[in-house]
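CORE FACILITY INTAKE
Project code: CF-77B
Contact: R.S. (postdoc)
Sample description: multi-component assembly, two entities in total
Requested service: structural model of the whole complex
Turnaround: standard
Below are the sequence entries exactly as provided by the requester. Do not edit them.
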Amino acid sequence: AQSVTQPDIHITVSEGASLELRCNYSYGATPYLFWYVQSPGQGLQLLLKYFSGDTLVQGIKGFEAEFKRSQSSFNLRKPSVHWSDAAEYFCAVASMNRDDKIIFGKGTRLHILP
Amino acid sequence: NAGVTQTPKFQVLKTGQSMTLQCAQDMNHNSMYWYRQDPGMGLRLIYYSASEGTTDKGEVPNGYNVSRLNKREFSLRLESAAPSQTSVYFCASQPGQGNQPQHFGDGTRLSIL
């Protein structure tokens, strides 16, 4: 069965600094991978997804993520964060089996220093 | 487009009271889900419905029941609320397959006193 780990519960960065949020997955074949963002008081919004092809995927709000099969990772990056990026970020993994469900990580809360 | 709509947004109940959380989606999606979100626990799946007329238990189904009223609507019922059910509840929908992105509502914040 697949699983996903987000090693960092909290991350604090200064506004304008670069950001990398870590995500590691466990799955025997090529997984389907997602990053979601949850702003305070709201539901989860899809930032980007990886199904196949180019291992560097672009998402909304200037985010990108890179799939590295050798490291079983799908880290989320942004070159320069804005105060509005303060939120909780969830990595998720799904298998090729349509009967399996998406598995979510426990989330990383991002704090932005002015 | 409204997407996934949850009602109510907030609710306070007393222990032992019953309550139904409503969820509706206008994207013609086949699959619908109910999650609860608690601090440090991430999202935990309560129940899901892969298609109209079917429902299945998720990771934490005890104390809850669901109804897939039609393709659009998927409700979650607490028959006898307990303080341990204080949480934020999210409904999500998905076009069909398990590996497609899910679309989330804005949540229902439920407190059980």
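Facility notes:
- Residues 43 and 91 of chain A are 14 Å apart (CA to CA).
- The mean pLDDT of chain A is 92.
Invoice: internal transfer
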